[in-house]
C-alpha cells in the first residue's frame, strides 16, 4: 500500500511538472503570437514610412526638374523675345529709310538731291538693321533636359526585404560561470561577413529549463559587442539561474534571437536576522551597526523578567550546559554582552563563501558561524557551538581565532575585508584576506547541526557581501590548506555535538 502510494505520488509529481512545462510552453506560444501581431503591425508602419519617404524624395526631385525646365524655357523665351523686339525696331527704321530714299529719287534740284543722298548714306551707315545679327541667340532644342530613368526603374524593381542575419548559437560547453562572473560564448551557424555587432540579453530566474513568460524579470541588454563572447563580471548571484540569448546585427537590421540558454548561478544569499539581534545593534539587510542607545530600558526589563520570573541566573553566573537550547525561528533576542546578530539562512550542506567589511573605526568585532542553538547570552567563539575570528582595536590591538573559549592569536595583519569559506560536508571553516586571498586561519571539525553565519559588533559596524561563489583562488588553496592548519591544533579537530 505504502509503496503504491509512493509510486502514485511520483506519478502525480511527474504529471504536475509536465503540466507546468506545457503551460509555460502555451504561455510562450501566446506571447510569441502577440509578438507576431505587434511586430507585423510595426513592420507595416515602417514599410509605409519608407515608401512615403521614397515618394517624398521623388516628388522633390520631380519638382526640382520641373523648375529647371521652366527656368530654361523662361530664359530662352526672354532671349528670343528680346531678339524679336530688336528686329522689329530695326525693320521699322529700315522701312522708313527705304521710303525716304524712294522719295528722294523724285527730287529735281541737284543740290537738294545731293543733300538727300548724303543723309541716306549716313543713315544707312548708322542703321541698326545692318548691325543686327540675324542668327537666333538660342535654339528651340530642350533635349539637354530630357531624362531616362530606366536604370532607376530597374533599381526600384529590385527593392526587397533586408537580408536578416541568422540566429547565433550559444555553446553551453564554452560558457563559464566562476568568481561571480559569467562568460557567454556563441557562434554563427554559417559565416556572415556582414555582421557588424551582437546584442546579448540576460536576466535572472529561479526556474530551470526554458525561460518563462510570466513572473520573470525584464531582459537586460548589452549592445555593440564586436566579438563572439562576452563576460559579465561583478555579479551578485541572488537567483538560482540566469537566462541568456544573443542576436546578430548588420548595418541595417537585427536578426532573430538565439535559442535561450540557462546557466546555474547558485550561491548562498542571506540577510541579517533583525528579529533576534541584540537591541544595541541596528540591523538592515546586510549591514549591522552598533547603537549604544538601542533598546534602552527594554533590555533591563527583559533581564528583570527573566531573572525574576524564571529563576534564570544572570549571564555572568550561567554555565553553557545549564541552559536549554533555543529553537531558531522563535528564539529570544541576544542580550547581555553578546552583541550578536545571525544570518537568516541556515547552511546544511555544500561549500559557501561570503565577505565582511568593518568600518574603519570599529573597536571590536567577530566573524564566524554558529549552530542554531547558540544561547542568547553566548558570545561567538566562547562556546563549543560557534567558531570565529575576533578583531579588537580597543586599548590594545589583537587578532585571534576563537572556539569553545579557546583563543589562538593570529600573527597576520587584519585585512580590509575578510572572506569566509564554509565547507559544511568537509567540516572546514576558513578565513581569508578577501582581496589577496591569503589564508588567515582554518578550523577543521565535524559539523553536526545546521550552521548560521554569525557576527558580533561593538562600537562600529559591518557590511556583508553575499550571493558570492567560492572564488577559484580559494578552491585552489584548499589543497594546501590542511598543512597550514596544523599549528592551530589547539582549536582544530574538534567534533561538536
TrEMBL record:
Gene Ontology BP terms: protein ubiquitination
Coiled-coil residues are 70-104
Tell me where the signal peptide lies: none
Q: Where is the B30.2/SPRY domain?
A: 268-473
> From start to end residue, where is composition biased (Basic and acidic residues)?
298-308
Show the InterPro entries listed in the entry: B30.2/SPRY, B30.2/SPRY_sf, Bbox_C, Butyrophylin_SPRY, ConA-like_dom_sf, COS_domain, E3_ligase_FN3/SPRY, FN3_dom
Domain (COS) spans 105-162
Q: Which UniProt keywords apply?
A: Coiled coil, Ubl conjugation
Q: Where is the Fibronectin type-III domain?
A: 164-268
Q: Where is the composition biased (Polar residues)?
A: 309-321
What are the start and end residues of every segment in region (Disordered)?
290-332
Under CDD domains, the record lists: FN3, SPRY_PRY_FSD1
Identification of the protein by name: Fibronectin type III and SPRY domain containing 1 like
Q: What gene name is given for the protein in this entry? A: FSD1L
